[in-house]
């Protein structure tokens, strides 16, 4: 027999929180589940300007995330610069000044992969968080999306959240613009 102050089960079901949908999640929550881009996802957590953008519910973003295999095959790490080695030699990243240089290089690389817009229409030139200009075009009979300049192939959209999308790349955006 029901107690007088108990609620029927239907009333409890109505008050239960709704499951998290793409529109209520944010990009920073989405990234940890994407194993093929987890190296780049780690970079986004190390750069405060990028992390703030991915956590923002008031700014839409398209994140251009290179595959782990792409990052692993780069001739140097994203925080390394040939100019730093030319100027400072093998110790370019030693000590606190070296750490600061590496952090600034990583910031430049990561911000170049953050498009400050979503939705992002084909052919529309937009600024990245790092200040560069990019756009995308469709190429080939199979309609491959490519980030321009550089014709960086988009493998696909791997996640959507209320504040943006994650596009997985088979290359890196030129961050030296």
TrEMBL record:
The keyword Ligase does not apply. Residues 1-27 are annotated as: Disordered. Residues 24-173 form the FAS1 domain. Residues 11-27 have a biased composition (Low complexity). Keywords: Signal. This is FAS1 domain-containing protein.
């Amino acid at each position: 027999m029901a107690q007088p102050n108990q609620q029927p089960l239907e009333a409890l079901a109505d008050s239960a929180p709704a499951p998290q949908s793409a529109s209520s999640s944010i990009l920073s929550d989405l990234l940890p589940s994407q194993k093929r881009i987890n190296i780049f996802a780690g970079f986004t957590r190390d750069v405060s300007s990028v992390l703030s953008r991915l956590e923002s519910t008031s700014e839409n973003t398209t994140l251009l995330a290179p595959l782990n295999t792409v990052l692993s095959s780069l001739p140097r790490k994203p925080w390394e610069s040939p100019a730093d080695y030319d100027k400072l030699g093998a110790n370019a990243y030693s000590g606190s000044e070296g750490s600061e240089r590496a952090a600034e290089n990583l910031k430049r690389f990561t911000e170049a992969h953050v498009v400050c817009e979503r939705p992002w229409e084909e052919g529309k030139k937009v600024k990245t968080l790092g200040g560069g200009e990019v756009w995308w075009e469709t190429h080939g009979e199979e309609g491959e999306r490519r980030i321009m300049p550089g014709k960086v192939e988009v493998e696909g959209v791997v996640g959507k959240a209320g504040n943006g999308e994650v596009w997985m790349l088979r290359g890196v955006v030129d961050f030296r613009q």
